[in-house]
Amino acid sequence: MTRCHRIRSQIRSLFGNFYVDADIPFLSGLNYRLNFGNNYRWNREYSSNAFANSAAGSASKINSSWYDWTLDHILTYRKTLATVHSLDVTLVYGRRESNFEQAVAAGSNFNNLRLSYNDLNLSGIQVIQSSAWDESYL
Predict the structure, then answer these.
(1) pLDDT band at residue 56, thresholds of 50, 70 and 90?
(2) 19-50, pLDDT tens digit by residue?
(3) What is the rounded distance in angstroms from the CA atom of residue 14 to the CA atom of residue 8?
(4) Do residues 55 and 124 make contact, with C-beta atoms less than 8 angstroms apart?
(5) pLDDT top residue among 3 and 51
(6) pLDDT score, position 3
(7) 94-123 average pLDDT score
(8) pTM over 0.90
(9) Which residues pair with 66 in a beta bridge?
(10) What DSSP string runs through 86-124?
């Protein structure tokens, strides 16, 4: 009887934040700033009979990814009036988007789990699932 006890997970992430900040030369006190941030993550998870409860075992592969980004436009005007009063006005417009995607392939009731998650078509019961979503905000 062969029992596999493998669980392997790889989670990776790539992210960055960038901005541009500029004073507008033709109007004293006017400033524009652009912010951009993003995050891309992806996960690869492989497992086979993690608890070794039976000879038939189970195996699975899960691939998923997330992507999030944010973009902000910020316009600021600052003005001092008569050396005692000040005016400070800020306008902001932003957008954010997130999306997720996942695919799952799983099997159970193997005669032999030696190939673990690398040959799921040898399983007696096969399950394929997928999901995804996308959302956006202003």
Answers:
(1) low
(2) 999 999 899 999 999 999 999 999 998 887 65
(3) 20
(4) no
(5) 51
(6) 47
(7) 82
(8) no
(9) 41, 100
(10) EEEEEEEEEEEEEEEEEEEEEEE--S--TTGGG-GGGSS
DSSP-derived secondary structure letter, 120: G
CA distance 79 to 116: 69
Q: Output the six-digit token pair for 105.
A: 């392939």
φ, ψ for residue 121 (rounded to 5)? -70, -10
Query: Could you tell me whether strands 58-81 and 85-108 are parallel, antiparallel, or unpaired per DSSP bridges?
Result: antiparallel
**Is 98 a residue whose pLDDT tops 50?**
yes
Structure tokens at 15: 């992210």
Tell me, rounded to whole angstroms, the distance of Cα 51 from its chain centroid: 29
The strand pairing partners of 127, in sequence order, are: 106
Q: How far is CA 133 from CA 10, 77, 130, in A?
A: 22, 39, 11
Alpha carbons 35 and 92: distance in angstroms, whole number: 11
Of the candidates 102, 81, 78, 80, the residue with the CA atom closest to the CA atom of residue 90 = 78
